[in-house]
Amino acid sequence: MKKTIFLILLFATSSCFAQEIALLKYNGGGDWYANPTSLPNLIKFCNATINTKLKSKPRTVEPSSPDLLSYPFIHMTGHGNVVFNDAEVINLRNYLLAGGFLHIDDNYGMDEYIRKEIKKIFPNDNLIEIPSNHVLFQKPFIFNNGLPKIHEHDGKRPQAFGIFIKGKLVLLYTYECDLGDGWEDSEVHNDPYEVREKALKMGANIINYIFTN
Predict the structure, then answer these.
(1) Looking at domain 2-212, does it have CATH number 3.40.50.12140?
(2) Alpha-carbon distance values, 19 to 9, 13, 99, 191, 198 (Å)
(3) Is the dihedral of CA 80, 81, 87, 89 positive or negative?
(4) Region of 74 on the Ramachandran plot (φ > 0 left; ψ -120 to 50 alpha; else beta)
């Protein structure tokens, strides 16, 4: 209860003071540090287009850290293995139940590992595919077909999966999409402006959801 109250008070002040978001540094061998320019670019875009007041440089936080509670949004990405130990599972669960939000973006190759780790966090809940009419895809930017396709990977359709607690999305897993690559500096992947803009707008929708729902 105290943690929940803490997060409510923390997030409520975000409209007046600059708020920080964070990148999750996990164990297992996966490259948690992939896409170094993505979060700074997303922050810049959100501050310019949806009137957020996010600090320009994201923090790095580990799953076991009590500092998780300092961040309303935590982003996780990579290409390979992910392992959460028991203490990390408990801490992540407590963070999400207290009002935090975790966005996991498969940078290609994470899927077979991260699904097992999500199940550790919420053993009694299944990932649910989020339909295109969900508010996540409706404001402030409209995505009538749901999650946009940024990079091809295996050529499968992009899918957004979520864990919902009392009707609220607390964990978002984006698959076959690669939003983080789309947030990177243009010269990193040479994506055209239209593709990067779609990725940034979808990212802004995620940030907007956190602060308005």
Answers:
(1) yes
(2) 12, 8, 15, 29, 24
(3) positive
(4) beta
CA 187 to chain centre: 23
- Per-residue pLDDT of the chain (213 residues), as tens digits, is 434 434 444 444 444 568 999 999 999 999 999 999 999 999 999 999 999 999 999 999 999 999 999 999 999 999 999 999 999 999 999 999 999 999 999 988 899 999 999 999 999 999 999 999 999 999 999 999 999 999 776 778 999 999 999 999 999 999 999 999 999 998 887 889 999 999 999 999 999 999 998
Written as one letter, the residue type at 110 is M
Tokens representing 17 are 């003071």
Domain residue ranges in the chain = 2-212
Q: Which residues contact 124 (CB under 8 A, 6 or more apart)?
A: none
